[in-house]
Amino acid sequence: MSSALARYESFLIKNVSTISSLESTLRSITWILPGRFRDAELASEALSATLNVMSMYHDTLLAQFVQNDPKYKALIPPSLHTRYTRAWSDKDWRYKWAARTLQLVRFTELLIEMGLRRKVSVRNRWRGIVLLELVKAVLRLLLLKITRRPLLTPPIPEREIDPSALPPDSDTSSPTLAPSSPPASLPSTPEHLKNNHVQLPLHPLLTPPPPTQEPLPVEDFLLPKALTTSSVKAPTALVHPLTSPKDWLAEIIYILRPLVYAIMLSKDRKTNRPLTTVLFLELLSRHLRRVPGRSGSLERSEYANRDRDMLWYLLRGSIWQTYTRPKVQAFAARTARVPLLNIFSAFIRDWIPLIDEYHYYTAP
């Protein structure tokens, strides 16, 4: 088993570009599967969950390989998010495994809900959803206790490895395999090409055109290359610790609101109380959270993502039923016979029932 795993790791490293393209293609297919055949949404989500889990495994292997290979030099420096999450993963094993477990639950939660919907009663299905949210809340509180800083989404490093910057195939080896044999010598130059040093004149069509604009000022060239305060900070200091009770309260409310929403929905799905309660908690957390300083670009980016995620409330509860859904259905009906747009309208009609039936398509 270990030998087969080692061969797979070696194959991954030597074909990382092809595997990345295949993952992207298959992930695009999952968006168009729902509505194509019976239980197509289950097949789509099973494929999506498998791809996400495999991608997380591949990212771990590539990160280990890059870390152990002195020949690898990244063309672009890692993002602040990658530096921060990788530093915490390397610093504390509890953070690493809690973050990975949290991502694993998030990758499979919708698939689990689909299985529960087909196998158990509605009451037990909601019990399963509440249990999943309880597990996620405990893991997030553990991450909060470890870092004492606002949580980032996702809590693990994202893939930022350029396949073209990896060493050649003959020099690469799996992290679990012995180093490969030294590369063979390059073929010698043929005799009839050794003295071929006379350059042919350039054809007019191959001559680069003259510049049409003035060169950029030296300041515009150097400014993006200048170091910032975030570039020289320690990775774990890119987000400042929570200090005041108000900061802690804001983060705890933000972590617990999906659990509160699931518990209220499991008991009452006919009124607006679950939606109004979770929206109130969202706004309260936003009001209580601190304003990041000038050097807190990573924290500002996280808060901006949280603010954008509030648009998902248009697809939840009574807002979806009374406002958003009629408008979406009207748009789909108007564009059903318009060339090209009818493809998009059919896509919308296939996804509307899924938003009605499954919690995790739009869950906070």
TrEMBL record:
Record has 4Fe-4S as a keyword: no
Comp. bias intervals (Low complexity): 163-179
Pfam family, one: Pex16
Keywords: Peroxisome, Peroxisome biogenesis
Entry GO CC: peroxisomal membrane
Segments for region (Disordered): 157-193
Cell location: Peroxisome membrane
Biological process per Gene Ontology, one example term: peroxisome organization
Tree of life domain: Eukaryota
PANTHER family, alphabetized: PEROXISOMAL MEMBRANE PROTEIN PEX16
Family statement drawn from the similarity comment of this UniProt entry: Belongs to the peroxin-16 family.
Record protein name field: Peroxisomal membrane protein PEX16
